[in-house]
């Protein structure tokens, strides 16, 4: 009897471990090759949502890591979003502010490296379960864009949908 209980419990734990996790937070940062972001380099991030994840609201932010030699106070980025099962990519041009008007870098810094998380959407809704793909493309006049070290995506749960 005791052995049967242990085997059954083990099988239930194994089955639960195979279930994909619910999304509470996702964060991934990718290095920009040579710290020169070219038009051709379009980092992408894929996130898979389960049916229960669609019942939540999410805050979405972009992470940017750069050196203090970065020549601008902002960076324009084209963000493409591909929804589950769609071949169409919705694009949106977004300005990411990296410095104050005075020239002081925003975010956190260590020596000559600065990192900034910039919210781009609060209380976002993902209506369909499946894999979402986010693509980032630098959209500045200068190509390549120097002194950009990393770019990343952060998505975190912001509560239940009304």
From TrEMBL:
UniProt keyword annotations, A-Z: Lipoprotein
Protein name: Gliding motility lipoprotein GldH
Origin species: Chitinophaga nivalis
């Amino acid at each position: 009897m005791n052995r049967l209980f242990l085997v059954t419990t083990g099988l239930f734990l194994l089955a639960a471990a195979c279930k994909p996790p619910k999304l509470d937070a996702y964060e991934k940062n990718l290095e920009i090759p040579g710290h020169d972001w070219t038009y051709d380099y379009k980092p992408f991030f894929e996130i898979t949502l389960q049916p229960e994840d669609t019942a939540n609201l999410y805050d979405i932010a972009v992470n940017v890591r750069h050196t203090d030699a970065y020549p601008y106070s902002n960076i324009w980025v084209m963000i493409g979003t591909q929804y589950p099962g769609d071949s169409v990519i919705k694009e949106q041009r977004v300005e990411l502010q990296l410095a104050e008007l005075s020239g002081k870098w925003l975010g956190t810094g260590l020596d000559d490296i600065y990192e900034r998380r910039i919210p781009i959407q609060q209380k976002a809704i993902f209506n369909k379960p499946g894999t979402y793909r986010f693509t980032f493309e630098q959209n500045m006049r200068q190509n390549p864009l120097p002194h950009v070290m990393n770019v990343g995506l952060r998505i975190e749960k912001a509560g239940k949908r009304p």
